[in-house]
Amino acid sequence: MSDTLVDGSCAAFAGRLAARTSVPGGGGAIAYAGALAAALGSMAGEFTIGKARYARYQDDLERMLGELADVRERLLGLVDGDARAFAPLAAAYALPKDDPTRADAIELATKGATKVPLQVMEETCRAIDLLEEMEEKCSAMLVADVGCGAALAEAALEGAGISVYVNTHNLRDREFADDAEGRSERMLQTFSPKAREVSRRVMARVRGRDQIG
User: Fold this and answer.
1) Is 80 exceeded by the pLDDT of residue 83?
2) Is residue 129 part of a domain?
3) What does the pLDDT look like over 21-74, one tens digit per residue?
4) Is residue 3 part of a domain?
5) What number is the average pLDDT over the span 74-90?
6) What angle, 0 to 180 degrees and rounded to 10, lies between the N-to-C axes of helices 10-18 and 26-48?
7) What's the average model confidence in pLDDT over 97-125?
């Protein structure tokens, strides 16, 4: 077995995701989707950089490629981060129901589990900003990949939001819960429409409503 969930093949990851095991689960899948979104942005940049037609964007492309690589690596790390965060939560729920420490253990573990999807959202927001810029500055031949990346990023962001809310739903510490939910909601309201607009524009272009090339 691989040391981490993302070290194996795509087929192995999908197989583990489909199995009757707790990890990877939705949290790991959405982090992986966000990483793939960033990777598609990188692909568009790699095929554009060095082309004379886009020389005016050379510095921007180099910067974006560096940032996208960072986002991708962080999100891949969060695939396993989500699995690690689930372990104490599973252990807490496994405590006997008459154990006086059980409720506090669940509360603490739930707070820990909430932090990972918030991190996934933050990194995915970075990816969305970069995909929006890449749409403008990459080779027209790669714009479809940027659109696919934006669609994946929107799904990752929405999915991470679901993970935040499923964790905060039963928290007794409503100050912590309200803060986490507020952060999540602000990202959803700002970046989901942005990602959707990128994919919408790309769809219009590839369906012939706007010129490609």
Assistant:
1) yes
2) yes
3) 888 889 999 999 999 999 999 999 999 999 999 999 999 999 999 999 999 999
4) no
5) 93
6) 160
7) 96
**Block residue for tokens 């962001």:** 157
What digits encode the pLDDT tens for the residues 122-172? 999 999 999 999 999 999 999 999 999 999 999 999 999 999 999 999 899
Cα distances (Å, whole numbers) of residue 38 to 51, 121, 176: 21, 13, 30
Q: What is the CATH number of the domain that holds 31?
A: 1.20.120.680
Which residues 6+ apart lie within 8 Å of 115 measured at CB? Answer: 85
Note the residue count of the chain. 213
Which domain covers residue 159, as residue numbers? 10-206
Within a domain: 151: yes
Q: Which two tokens stand for residue 80?
A: 């396993």
Q: Which residues have C-beta within 8 Å of that of residue 94, sequence separation ≥ 6?
A: none
In this prediction the pTM is 0.92
Number of domains making up the chain: 1
Give a yes or no: residue 4 inside a domain: no
Q: Match 């607009």 to its residue by tokens.
A: 197
